[in-house]
Predict the 3D structure of the following.
Amino acid sequence: MNDIQITPELVAEHGLTSEEYERIVKAMGREPNYTELGIYSVMWSEHCSYKSSRFHLKKLPTEAPWVIQGPGENAGVIDIGDGQAAIFKMESHNHPSYIEPYQGAATGVGGILRDVFTMGARPVANMNALRFGEPDHPKTRHLLAGVVEGIGGYGNCVGVPTVGGETNFDPSYNGNILVNAMTVGLADTDKIFYCAAAGVGNPVVYVGSKTGRDGIHGATMASAEFTEDSEEKRPTVQVGDPFTEKLLIEACLELMATDAIIAIQDMGAAGLTSSSVEMASKGGVGFELDLDKVPQREENMLPYEMMLSESQERMLMVLKPGREEMAQKIFEKWELDFAVIGHITDTGNLTLKFGGEVVGDMPINSLVEDAPEYERPYVPTPKREAVDVAPVNDLNKAVLDLVGGPNLCSRRWIWEQYDHMVMGDTIQRPGGDAAVVRVHGTDKALAISTDVTPRYCYADPVEGGRQAVAETWRNITAVGGTPLAITNCLNFGNPERKDIMGQFVGCLEGMGEACRALDYPIVSGNVSLYNETNGSGILPTPAIGGVGVMKNSDRMATIAFKDEGEAIVLIGETKNELGASLYQREILGEDAGAPPHVDLALERRNGDFVRALIENGQVTTCHDLSDGGLIAALADMAIAGGIGVNVAVDGDLPLHAALFSETQARYLIAADTEVAETIRKEAKDAGIPVEIIGATGGDRLRVNNDAVDIPMSELAKAHTDWMPKFMAKEILTTG
Amino acid sequence: MKSAVIVFPGSNCDRDMAVALEKITGTKPLMVWHQDYDFETVDFIALPGGFSYGDYLRCGAMSARSHVMKEVIKRANDGVPTLGICNGFQILTETGLLPGALMRNANLHFVCKDVAMTVENTDTLFTKDYAGGEEIIIPVAHHDGNYFADDDTLDRLEGEGQVAFKYTSDINGAQRQIAGITNARGNILGMMPHPERMIEPALGGSDGRKLFTSLMNTLN
Amino acid sequence: MKARIHVTLKNGVLDPQGKAIEHALGNMGFDGVNEARQGKFIELELAETDREKAETAVDEMCRKLLANTVIENYSIELE
């Protein structure tokens, strides 16, 4: 196969430009053969090289005293005290999930789990951020059903709880859904594993499943725009085996408890190629691999196929010499393949042998450092002016339409298909502001939230980027957690378009500002570009996964009203900010005006105040305000608690603005009337806008007597019913 | 009370079961890897939930035929109290220690949620501490919990008091809303809901504790 | 020798997956499907060359593992 002539067509088929090919020839000092071309093409793909995004990603803040490992490893690592670390990352599996929703989503979960346990962590929580096209689009139900089934099918089997996430609908995702999966794991700070290989002569070991012809060119597919015939690309989709993954987790953690491992890396996108190159590059060494020794599932596999295969559930390790036998026993116990497939060299090259011949020999440096980096031209998104957003006559209907509509309705139909309780530490289940998972065997807990508001990012990328970070920070705060760091999954359209690149640059600018202002750095992430179909891009969607810690898991707030007769306290000032709001889009069918401004100093001040109330035990009921504003938050709290609420809203704002405005940095608290009065005074003293707006009780949601007046039963039904009713129309053929 | 938790490749509620047993009985259970079938004598054997052998072929089918299960079957037949939760229940029916089979949920979806069930028989090792007819909340998490047996078997189970728990509403299509059953002798219990997940208020409730205290009080 | 085994649910055992298929076919406009039952197909490559011995062995495999005779029937084809 290596005698295949390298033609310009072949180069183009590998997603490389002719300039990039010239760069390869220069780096190697000769023409690459077919195998080498394949390897360069995946290493230099957008997915592996971040060639369009690297320049801008460098500007993001990635450090804090508690950050043990920032971006650049398999996952980020933060110190959570007591010698323990949280290890986490979020990653996209958008294109595969559109082509084959079940397997695409399942292998997305599998991949992100491996990124986390590769570093020595036991995965303790899965989250996700999902975007689908408009509900009426003919593919939406099918895709949603398949993705949910795939996430559940994988996560449930490996026994890691899927504790939360977010799901949204927008026509811009009709032909390009987003499936972003996040895993959080726990490890001891002195038992963290990295991928830098070391020690000339040390064995390179392959473990896990055998290699087949799965997903060859998956990494380059993820970097190419979709066209109608992508649906023909089904054979390149990988198939996941969560059972093997479960065994792999246990086997790796068992081996990690010994001192045998020098370096370890999972085989994700671009499989054996990217794992060996990463390990060698980080360690500044060379690798020689004997491809005849790679465990193979199919016959007559060629070097090109073995190096590019994306078969799942595989890992690559460098062991200390002499530990092979002991390691092999562990993997045999777990009935997994184990093979020494090569060793470390001092040549600085990736050398591939097959049938006794050298079939590839490339300088590692050139594969990584010579990868092109583009400072793509961009135009900033034009600023929108503030607009007046009209009221509606029937507020009851508007509330019911929002709370009982696709964007705010209960996601129970989804999360009941995920085992969210396995491992016995889920103390806040899905449906609240953030999921809370205890650190096993301690009083501590992790609070986790995923969020982004793509319509804000579209209207104003800088505000949208700020808001996405701030909202996860607020969600973690609202349960009582101290937000520590984030991971991100940056989903955008074609970076070769100046307007799209402008969105990307703008969102990153906003995110960076928010991270700095909130001491909330980015420790890991993933970029997914070219999310478009036939030239029409998705809304800019920089999904953020935030992680925080709670010292005392007994001091936790949930959104549900706990009792009748409690006072409702609104923290933070409400402004007339209905531009790009959910109300404007869903009720008026418009999208105009500037999105709400994010004042990061206010975020911090108000959030720190609220968190202290939860930490000192004064408050156990709290909800942040976001999509749908005050009224949506009140409805959530009332529905979750099964208790009605009666509030009075006065002031200068028109009523529809007071109810639906999406002004940031706001929280609702419910507390005993005396406690509420104390809180009000404390807030006033701290200069924080605060108002007691009403009380819990009764069986209706009421505002200003009967300006809004909806029986709780009707509200709850609208909220609960939308999703199951919508999905009941799906033709079920899965399982 | 000395317990053993049997661990199969793909078990994933083994730790949860061990934590519950230790918290409630005060003794760490023995964790028995499926290949170590010659394990020491214990007072109680638990088959935990999970996806042993990936649920491939049929849930519990491969585990039921493993070496360690030959030993478990022998001991259970000798009267050692044996509990199978979720995948453990599936394994018990696959071995024939308990009658019937667990089929795919009627709506075909995996279901994870708290469910209400009634304690149908309090005269068993596992249910003594519950009140007769007591309604308890225990979570389920399964894809194949739809209990099936022929009518004669169902009549016999109900007639002989072998139905330990029933759901109060239709959860998965199970015949007669059966959530858990015992063998005729009463020393083997299989159930789909997870009592080990409901042992403290932080997890949403403590209704699962009495199952373990019943057992402990009987054995001590 | 190759053994092909079909495992099907016994009559009278509710088959939710079959029901879903039946329902889906109806929704898609395929009329006249009175019932759908879903089963499993398992193919074994056997070293045994004696047909009778093979049949006995496979039958035992079916009874002991491949089918759950509480709810399933099986049929064996040898080739």
Observations:
- Chain B touches chain C through 21 residues (CB under 8 Å).
- The longest strand of chain B covers residues 111-119.
